[in-house]
């Protein structure tokens, strides 16, 4: 972690705890298991330090160690933390009925996302047909700049914060149509703010189109985004704008989070 991060200079910040959490966050890469040396390198710590952290997490039940391969994996206890969040957060309980209604009316994948740094995190997912396993699971992170939900969430930030976020990432061209120019992305996000929704076409996956709209609280602040994804072969852009966008706007504008 950067020594310049102002959070780490606060007298109540516990650096050892941050390093321990970093060990669990290594699994964000999608690996099912990881060896000690690779884990230490990924976390930027010594092998002996990584060994102490992994032993502690194993004793607490959040990691398990395969004695033959000597590789570490997450356990169900990490999932239990996710359940506690989903069960307690009023955002989930307030929006779930609307997401279910939206899924029934469009028969497509519907997601609820929140902003996390330069990324979005899917906190609720109601899959459509023919979705992959990964696309069905909540907790997945995706870049904000190239996703419809991410652009909606970024558009709620002040202009200088949007520019700072775009300056803090290195855009990857996922498809030939992925927009990677910083100024063009900034203008697209401002346009999203003005029109009240975002539409992305083949920005992350070839043949995929996505739309998103904000979920707001009682103070009219954006707290999350709902997005719908579809296949271009079945939902051309014009049809998405004519049928899906009004449906999405109708449903999201009826949601108010306290």
From TrEMBL:
One short Pfam name that applies is HTH_IclR
Q: Which InterPro entries match?
A: GAF-like_dom_sf, HTH_MetabolicPath_Reg, Tscrpt_reg_IclR_C, Tscrpt_reg_IclR_N, WH-like_DNA-bd_sf, WH_DNA-bd_sf
Q: What is this protein called?
A: Transcriptional regulator
Gene Ontology MF terms: DNA binding; DNA-binding transcription factor activity
Any idea which UniProt keywords this protein has? DNA-binding, Transcription, Transcription regulation
User: Would I find RNA-binding among this entry's keywords?
Assistant: no
Checking Gene3D superfamilies in the record gives: 3.30.450.40, Winged helix-like DNA-binding domain superfamily/Winged helix DNA-binding domain
Q: Which SMART domains match?
A: HTH_ICLR
Domain named HTH iclR-type: which ranges?
14-76
Protein's UniProt keywords contain GTP-binding? no
Q: Where is the IclR-ED domain?
A: 77-258
Q: Biological process GO annotation list?
A: negative regulation of DNA-templated transcription
Q: Which domain of life is it from?
A: Bacteria
Species whose genome carries this gene? Metapseudomonas furukawaii
């Amino acid at each position: 972690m950067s020594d310049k991060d102002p959070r780490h200079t606060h007298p109540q910040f516990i650096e050892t705890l941050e390093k321990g959490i970093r060990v669990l966050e290594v699994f964000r890469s999608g690996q099912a298991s990881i060896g000690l040396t690779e884990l230490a390198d990924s976390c930027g710590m010594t092998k002996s330090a990584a060994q102490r952290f992994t032993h502690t997490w194993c004793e607490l039940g959040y990691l398990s160690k395969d004695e033959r391969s000597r590789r570490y994996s997450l356990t169900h206890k990490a999932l239990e933390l996710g359940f506690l969040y989903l069960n307690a957060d009023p955002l989930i309980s307030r929006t779930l009925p609307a997401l279910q209604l939206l899924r029934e009316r469009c028969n497509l994948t519907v997601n609820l996302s929140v902003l996390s740094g330069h990324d979005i995190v899917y906190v609720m997912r109601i899959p459509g047909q023919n979705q992959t396993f990964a696309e069905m699971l909540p907790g997945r992170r995706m870049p904000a700049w190239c996703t419809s939900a991410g652009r909606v969430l970024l558009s709620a930030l002040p202009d200088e914060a949007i520019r700072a976020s775009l300056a803090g990432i290195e855009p990857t061209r996922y498809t030939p149509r992925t927009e990677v120019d910083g100024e063009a992305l900034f203008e697209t996000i401002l346009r999203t703010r003005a029109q009240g929704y975002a539409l992305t076409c083949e920005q992350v996956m070839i043949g995929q189109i996505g739309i998103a709209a904000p979920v707001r609280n009682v103070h009219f602040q954006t707290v999350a985004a709902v997005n719908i994804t579809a296949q271009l072969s079945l939902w051309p852009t014009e049809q998405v704008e004519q049928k899906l966008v009004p449906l999405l706007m109708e449903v999201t504008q009826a949601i108010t989070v306290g």
